[in-house]
Write a structure and sequence with these properties.
By secondary structure, this protein is α/β, with parallel strands linked by helices. The chain has helices at 58-72, 83-96, 115-121, 132-140, 179-192, 208-213, 232-239, 265-272; strands spanning 15-21, 26-32, 39-43, 46-48, 103-107, 124-129, 148-152, 165-170, 193-205, 218-220, 226-230, 245-251, 284-290. 28% of the residues lie in helices and 27% in strands. Strand 8, helix 5 (179-192) and strand 9 (193-205) form a beta-alpha-beta unit.
């Protein structure tokens, strides 16, 4: 997937240099910009494009360190028993639509809970994250025959080939603390999508119940990582510079008492997504944008 990636300095495409692999996948080596001679190392199948000379904000640096630590203890991540993941993954992928044979950009791929699903039918997946340990875990759970490119990068500084991807998915919008950084990520996605390409973005939802209870818009998880909740109107306002066609809904809907029944949780959430009033109460907001 080298043709999809461009030099971080805005110089254009990259060329392979001293690489080794199996003819399809590169395991080790480097990519070089022929214009500025910048070198991007490939180590153990992961392309490293994180520019250490341009540090991230302090909250993002903290998150990167915590996510590296979490990925080192992979037992819970790979168990598939995390309730929120079960409620989230199927409904999120459904918004992307048909993926067979298509090129997919995944931002904030983490340890691969979506990457593994996307790779089953997609033509190719370019998976981006800033946690090296998470990418290693992602790599180790993917069959090497799958057409997946793993990139260590800050998505807000990434430059991809314009009009290259059919679909894009982002699941880390709520963890970006600075509006200008969110704008840069949206700009990257918009530029890299083909005309009529679909972008699905998920974020923590600030529901009417949160407003009535006076819950804060932003906070931190137990591990200290920052998060922010959004209304549909707020996210659309942030994205309208680059996208003009939107659809919004929510997922991960918890119904008191009924959702406590373990075997019913996923089913109840899925049904509730189709009921007008309940469909606005999900803890996750999904925005589906189309490049026009």
């Amino acid at each position: 997937m080298i043709d999809f990636i461009q030099c971080n300095k805005g110089c254009g495409g990259l060329e392979t240099e001293k690489v080794n692999g199996n003819g399809t996948l590169i395991f080790n080596g480097a990519l070089k910009c022929p214009n500025c001679n910048n070198i991007y190392r490939i180590s153990d199948g992961i392309l490293e494009m994180l520019d250490k000379a341009e540090p991230m904000d302090s909250q993002s640096q903290f998150e990167m360190r915590i996510r590296d630590e979490i990925a080192k203890d992979s037992k819970e991540i790979l168990s598939g028993n995390v309730l929120h993941d079960k409620l989230e993954v199927y409904s999120t992928l459904k918004r992307l639509g048909e993926t067979k044979g298509k090129s997919v950009l995944e931002l904030g791929c983490g340890s691969g809970r979506f990457t593994r699903k996307l790779a089953e039918n997609s033509g190719c997946v370019l998976a981006i994250d800033f946690s090296h340990q998470s990418l290693l875990l992602n790599r180790d759970t993917l069959p090497r025959t799958m057409n997946v490119g793993l990139v260590l990068a800050d998505a807000s500084k990434l430059i991809l080939k314009p009009n290259s991807f059919d679909l894009a998915l982002s699941t880390f919008y709520s963890n970006i603390p600075i509006p200008e950084t969110r704008r840069a990520v949206t700009k990257c996605v918009s530029s890299s999508l083909k005309p009529k390409g679909i972008y699905v973005l998920s974020a923590h939802h600030y529901t009417i119940l949160d407003k009535l209870r006076g819950n804060p818009v932003a906070g931190k998880y137990e591990n200290g990582i920052f998060y922010q909740c959004f209304t549909a109107e707020f996210v659309k306002k942030e994205m309208k510079e680059f996208f003009s066609k939107f659809k919004t809904d929510t997922i991960c809907i918890w119904i008191p008492y009924i959702s406590r029944i373990k075997l019913m949780r996923t089913y109840v959430s899925g049904v509730s997504e189709r009921i007008p009033l309940l469909s606005r109460l999900g803890s996750l907001l999904l925005v589906t944008a189309i490049k026009t």
